[in-house]
Amino acid sequence: MMYHITTLPGLEPILEEELNELGFEVQQKGRQVISCLGTEESIYRLNLSLRTGLRVLWEIRQVPIQTVQELYREAKALPWEKYIFPHQTIAVSVSSTGSSCASLRYLTLVLKDAVVDRFSEIYGKRPSVDTRSPDLPIHLHLEGHTATFSLDTSGESLHRRGYRTERTEAPLSEVLAAGILKVIGWHPEVPLYDPMCGSGTFLVEAGLMAYRIAPGILRTRFAFQNWKVFHKALYEKVRKELAEPYKNLVEEKNVSPKDHRGQGDHAGEKECAIFGSDKDPAAIEIARRNLERAGLGSKVRVFLGTFESLLPPFPPSRGGLVIVNPPYGKRLEDPSILALYKSIGDTLKQRYPGVEAWILSANPDALKQIGLRPFKKYALKNGPLDCKLVGFTLYNGSIRTR
Ligand SMILES: C[S@@+](CC[C@H](N)C(=O)[O-])C[C@H]1O[C@@H](n2cnc3c(N)ncnc32)[C@H](O)[C@@H]1O
């Protein structure tokens, strides 16, 4: 079985690495998509485990197509009734790279008609369309004259983990936060601090990684659960296995991370030190509750205060990572935003010699105010915004500590 896993722009190599770590053999790489082979069990494992995937698409047919009529015929010939009953709902989406024989809007209609016409002919009844929460989300990808029909096994995007039921202004996508932690090479043994943590997305994602908690464990719905071919017993088996670290964490709230040393699958818990702060008391409360829901309430510390006024939560001279997602400002040249970035730079220089700092921002003018020379820059997208993730090394005297 072939799976196409979609991701955010710039995170393709990270997703590929993740798939390799999960034991999948990557077959193809594309823009915002990595493909791999798997079994029926993989649908459940991928949806529950992936940190940097958005959707797991299960390819059901790939076929050459020249015209819209051919597309209709091919789509109608597929056994959609194998997956759902006619009283259930569908949604269709179409993407294309290279030329396509018609507008995507029109192709979406053609695909929808083919599917419902097949049901009407077999049952005299057709599934309705539900674009919000369909039982069977169908995806068609056209690349030149090749059509790939897939079922979206995830349904809602996998960035919806289930822990962030409350949000602050401008929260990061969970998938982007997890991807950034991997892009910058954070490892759970390195102390991590997010001094503008907002709803705590970096903190939760880091905690989930450190304690090896599968991010989908807290999610209650995936599209595949609505299908006739859903193998519930197999799903429960995979889920039970993957839920073990979360269960242990929640049950053993008072066990110190050190007590887990030497137990292979808890390797990430060694000296894990994750901290967050924010100047907004409401954000701190939300971050605390999000961490609690993710089972990390006793593992990640958050406190109230401005970055400029707080002392480092770990000794910077021994190394560590500071990750900041400051406000970007409504206007790029907003003087208060420029001043904020200058003060972030000053605080890093004065209080954090020895750490590596990373700043994610969509405001290039403000980033210049940091006043440090970056050693690395990545281009990423935060929703529709073009962002830069910029890394700075803060030297401890003349010695680079990391
Ligand atoms: C873009 S939001 C961060 C969103 C966060 N990454 C999330 O996923 O929810 C920026 C945060 O910076 C905080 N902030 C702004 N200036 C600050 C300062 N000087 N010290 C600490 N926090 C500050 C705001 O309160 C806000 O929560």
* CATH fold group of the largest domain: Rossmann fold
Label the overall shape: elongated
**What's the helical proportion of residues?**
25-40%
CATH architecture of the largest domain: 3-Layer(aba) Sandwich
In this entry the ligands are: S-adenosylmethionine
Rg is 23 Å
Strand order of the largest sheet: 2-3-1-4-8-7-5-6
CATH class of the largest domain: Alpha Beta
The CATH superfamily label of the largest domain reads Vaccinia Virus protein VP39
> So what's the oligomer here?
single chain
H/E topology pattern:
EHEEHEHEHEEEHEHHEHEEHEHEE
Number of strands: 15
Alpha carbon gap, first and last residue: 43 Å
pLDDT below 50 for ≥5 consecutive residues: which ranges?
257-269, 398-402
